[in-house]
Design goal:
Blueprint lengths: L8 E7 L3 H17 L2 E7 L16 H4 L13 E4 L5 H4 L2 H4 L5 E5 L11 E3 L23 H10 L1 H4 L6 E6 L6 E2 L2 H18 L2 E6 L5 H11 L4 E3 L8 H7 L2 E5 L3 H8 L5 E4 L2 E2 L2 H12 L3 E3 L14 H15 L1
Helix pairs in contact: 1-12, 5-9, 7-8
Length: 325
Amino acid sequence: MDAADKPLLNIWAVSDGRAGIEAQVVGLADAVARLRPAQVTIKRIAWKAPFGRLPWGLIPPRLALQPASGIAEPWPDLWIAAGRATLPLSTRVRRWSQGKTFVVQTQDPRTDLKPFDLVIPPVHDGLEGPNVFSIVGAPNRMTPERLASELARFRSRIETLPRPQFALIVGGTSKAFDLPPGRAAQMADEIAQAVGASGGSLLVSFTRRTPKPARRILSERLGGLPGWIWDGTGENPYAAFLGAADAVLVTEDSTNLATDAAATGKPVHILAMAGSSPKFSRFHADLEARGIVRRFGGMLENWAYTPLNETDRAAREILQRLSTS
């Protein structure tokens, strides 16, 4: 049976609504829908107070779930979820649906894997099992088509800036990393010198985790360069910056940010922060071995590689397992 002739798949992309987490499940759901006709519904999980503060295993889902989350029958054919907030549901939905729903969890759920049909963690987590399909980085939404369409939306603001254009994507505080004022100042000065020497321009995007002092320092010290430092108002040009860039600089604290950058096929420079993580060291070493990233050493280099496209590979694995379940 041709893919176009198969029944329409009903897919739920389930998360707590945080941008980075939702991008993983929506990106993976959309990738499945590119391979087989499907209807993708985004579900954002919210728990009533004070249940959301409990360890997830103690949350009684039917009692604690906010009605606006929209988790109720009829159950979907395919459930794709990510994040701690979804685990009270992801571990039960196969039973609730009497086995009719195929349950996919991205990231390492850090619990028994038996309730899931498929777990899709990053390779650097080192998770193994018969229902584990590891990928490099995280699922994402960065297809060539999306990068081009987002760039088109902001083209009038970007196309007048001098080339080469460099996207600077700044993460922030996490369990393993931080961006204190001293490191932010040093980073800004190194980048300003490199971009200034190139004669090009800089496109800067911060995340919600970027510390306010670091954001202020970077904005002040990079503000004299040609470019656009997005201040958080109006529509987010993040994907447009990636689409426009001749090269990308990204802080080392985020799997999502590095994976998005790697989907462009543009040189990706990794920026050091305060802190360290063996998992992230393995992740960056893998990307470097594939010719995707290099550590930023004060110079903006140019190289080529095949864009990373692990999301489509994971989508094909889902459909293959779904067809035999």
